[in-house]
Amino acid sequence: MNKKIFIVAVFIVGIVFLLALLFPVPLVKNGEHAVGSPLNATYLIDEKPVTLVGGKAEVELVPGSATKLKVSNFGEPVYGDIDSDGDQDAVLLLVSDTGGSGTFYYATLAINVSGSYRGTDTILLGDRIAPQTYYFQGNKAVVNYADRPFGAPLTTRPSEGKSLYLQYDPSNFRLIKVAVDFEGEADPSRMTLDMTTWKWIRTVYNDGTIVTPQKPEAFSLTFRKDGTVSVKTDCNSMSGTYEVSGKNIEFKDMATTLMYCEGSQEQVFSTMLGKVQSFLFTSRGELVLELKFDSGLIIFR
């Protein structure tokens, strides 16, 4: 009987050893906070390390306290090669919430180090700002967002377009704000709706959802001085009128052709336009249509 038990035990140990060889557990470099995804890396927020797991984290503000700092990734990481080493780094927006009325947005980078991602520190964008586009431009990361005018109460809708240009110091993984020569950049105060045909770039919802056109050149808006607007999609064309009052805008009497196109995003796009409430321009030459109830932004360029 004991011999049978011994044989079974040896068999089980052998199976466990074989599984360990076939499916090894990947090692995480905790010392460097380097992992295989930007959504699982460690970042410094207000000089405190925050390790994301699947894009989320909870950190005790005070040991033993029930109040926790909740951090989550906004939207999706955008990839590019900021250090010209041939691999893909990432720029992200992180959102922190302590349970109060504030919702704070931070810009950060995840640097690809030999196939693993190491997070940098973060730069605060503001409380309840409106994120827009973020991307790589050469050896810089660019973060565009809308904020309130200086001194405006937090109840004011973000309407002032801002851009943050970032690099990082490879010796300590700290972010560096880059001073940019703005000669040739757009002046939002001089931009008008009818100055160009606007191409849809993306829509960013406040829950972090991002919708991009599958055919980027297919979707556009053309405003005319007589109050009419033409809309092109990946299927039908639309036309109608628009009314502007200050920074508020409303589309009216929209008519469309009736062709059917399999897989078209036309309905998604037209639904967005029906929810537009206001607009603003950015120094990047973008038109931003703000959705009702602060639910999101449609970005055109």
From TrEMBL:
Boundaries of every DUF306 domain copy: 204-293
Name of the molecule in the record: DUF306 domain-containing protein
Top-level taxonomy: Bacteria, Candidatus Azamiibacteriota
Cross-referenced PANTHER family: HEAT SHOCK PROTEIN HSLJ (PTHR35535:SF1)
Coiled coil: none
